[in-house]
């Protein structure tokens, strides 16, 4: 099953519905970023620490699965040479619209991150990968490809979902919360269940991934973990956010000399 294409169409639909993560930054936000006043998100509510980026001037930055005009415009205004790789036509179209609106050049690449990335080894200084690997089954491949296309000393900034979120139903109140899934959650399984079919139709194919896969496989790919934070996302859109952090973010570095760490 070509589930990633189905997920891309799901994102296209969300874009047409103006879901928050498909609505681009404003002109005012872009202008502020040109003045050095900017923030970006890997997870829904916690701004990424500025020290995670280093000096972005003329740095080659890959926005991995980060179309939609959220981070690309801001990182461009901060001085980076940005490439956006995404599989959603709508998200790439929004990215192009913002670039044309603000008058800057950006590289847009339609590609599937479950496949080999369409870039040479050692191409980028930094990869910005907001929450999105919940839409692919094999994230070990994603981390290996990130390691390959980063230059020695390059940085991987990644956001991802707390796997525990997938244990529960989508409850509107605390009283209605129920454990309904076994971890790791795999929406390709049990498609014969009506509830699973309904969830896939609404949310696309998703995968919870263990922390061993999220962090351990970054380390196995060769990265060094440098920093980490939690995002509790304490708003009314997530009932569970009052009990545990729903999202995480990590900073990892490709060693300047992989043979001497």
UniProtKB/TrEMBL annotation:
**Methyltransferase type domain spans which residues?**
64-157
What keywords are annotated for this sequence in UniProt? Transferase
Indicate whether Disulfide bond appears among the record's keywords. Answer: no
Q: Which Pfam families match?
A: Methyltransf_11 (PF08241)
Give TM segment ranges: none
| UniProt key word Ribosomal protein | no
- Which Gene3D superfamilies does the record associate with it? Vaccinia Virus protein VP39 (3.40.50.150)
Gene Ontology MF annotations: S-adenosylmethionine-dependent methyltransferase activity
* Cross-referenced PANTHER family: GERANYL DIPHOSPHATE 2-C-METHYLTRANSFERASE, ZGC:194242
Protein name according to UniProt: Methyltransferase type 11 domain-containing protein
Q: What is the lineage of its organism?
A: Bacteria, Bacillati, Bacillota, Bacilli, Lactobacillales
């Amino acid at each position: 099953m070509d589930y990633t294409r189905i997920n891309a169409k799901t994102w296209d639909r969300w874009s047409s519905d103006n879901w928050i993560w498909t609505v681009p930054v404003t002109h005012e936000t872009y202008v502020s970023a040109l003045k050095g006043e900017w923030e970006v998100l890997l997870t829904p509510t916690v701004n990424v620490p500025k020290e995670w980026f280093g000096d972005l001037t003329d740095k080659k930055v890959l926005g991995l699965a980060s179309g939609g005009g959220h981070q690309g415009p801001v990182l461009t205004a901060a001085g980076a040479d940005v490439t956006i790789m995404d599989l959603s036509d709508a998200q790439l179209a929004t990215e192009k619209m913002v670039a044309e609106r603000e008058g800057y050049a950006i590289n847009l690449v339609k590609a599937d991150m479950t496949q080999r990335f369409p870039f040479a080894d050692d191409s980028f200084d930094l990869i910005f990968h907001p929450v999105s690997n919940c839409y692919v089954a094999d994230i070990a491949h994603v981390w290996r490809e990130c390691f390959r296309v980063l230059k020695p000393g390059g940085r991987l900034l990644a956001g991802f979902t707390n796997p525990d979120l997938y244990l529960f139903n989508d409850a509107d109140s605390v009283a209605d919360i129920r454990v309904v899934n076994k971890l790791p959650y795999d929406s390709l399984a049990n498609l014969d269940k009506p509830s699973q079919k309904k969830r896939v139709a609404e949310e696309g194919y998703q995968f919870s991934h263990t922390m061993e896969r999220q962090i351990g496989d970054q380390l196995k790919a060769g990265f060094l973990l440098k920093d980490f934070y939690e995002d509790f996302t304490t708003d009314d859109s997530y009932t569970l956010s009052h009990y545990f952090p729903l999202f995480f973010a990590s900073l990892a570095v490709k060693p300047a000399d992989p043979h001497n760490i």
